[in-house]
Amino acid sequence: VNNQASLTFIHVYPDELPESATEEEKALNRENARNMNTEILENHVHKICKVIGADALSCACVAIPGDPGRQVAAYASAHQADLVVTGTHGRKGLRDYIFGTHTWNIAKRSSVPLLAIPEDAYYAGIHRIVFASDCRGYEIAAIQQLADLATGFDASITVLHVIDEPFSDAYERYIFADFKAQVRKAVKYPKLSFKLIGESDDVPGALNTFCMRHSIDLLSVPSDKTFRLDHLLFHHTSQDMALATKIPLLCLPESARKPGPARVTLLEAAEEAGKSIRNRV
To answer: Could you write out the three-class secondary structure of the chain?
Structure first.
């Protein structure tokens, strides 16, 4: 835990008001709902801190009405957060893990890096990181961000590309080699390696196999709108991937600033997130 970073827990709750209510009644209801949800959040955070032995943890609690994806992304941007952290739980398959939760709604809107921690994840340090690449130039900035993060853990980074396009194998290898040279030139990180996996009709399955075999601690992907993450996860996706419940996912938007230690925003969307946090500390 970096004691220079500030921590904010966010709980987004439904904004439900009777249509027949007057403006004065609506204002009163909103205030009561905000106070009630803030109290619920503070009590939950207190329990988390007690469980993980961090009673002295300094943090803020914020309850906001509305859509979780929009509100968390907006809050993180407005407060210049360096990282948004979400807990995920109880879903089968990487497709459900991302698209079946608020995580994807936040990731596709956020200009801030997002870390999604599965319920069954266990923190044993960050030693090996995989960056799932589509061999596109805009990914280089994300890889540099990842290198900045990896430096603090002395972790290795593997830039991994799985061939899934109907091009020739030789052409894909040429594209990969060219991208590798560009990254090598731009990112000066000694523990950076590259891996190309032959054509597969199950990209998430190939990712999962690689991560399991190599005991990967963190999987990272670029999450800006030009990255075909939806294609990656929906194209012949396996339904029972262990990856979805074990390995944290770091989404790096192209527009994000370099990560720094100053501010961290933590999404408190459900009680299961508390278990995720506990497992990662």
So the answer is: CCCCCEEEEEEEECCCCCCCCCHHHHHHHHHHHHHHHHHHHHHHHHHHHHHCCCCCCCEEEEEEECCHHHHHHHHHHHCCCCCEEEEECCCCCHHHHHHCCHHHHHHCCCCCCEEEEECCCCCCCCCEEEEECCCCCCHHHHHHHHHHHHHHHCCEEEEEEECCCCCCHHHHHHHHHHHHHHHHHHCCCCCEEEEEECCCCCHHHHHHHHHHHCCCCEEEEECCCCCCHHHHHHCCCCCCCCHHHHCCEEEECCCCCCCCCCEEEEECCCHHHHHHHHHHC
Residue closest to 175 by CA, chosen among 145, 133, 211, 146: 133
Average of per-residue pLDDT across 23-40: 90
User: How large is the C-alpha radius of gyration of the chain?
Assistant: 20
Instruction: Give the pLDDT confidence of 7-19 residue by residue, as tens digits.
Output: 899 999 988 777 7
Separation CA 272–CA 125 (nearest Å): 21
Which of 98-107, 138-147, 232-241 is predicted most confidently? 138-147
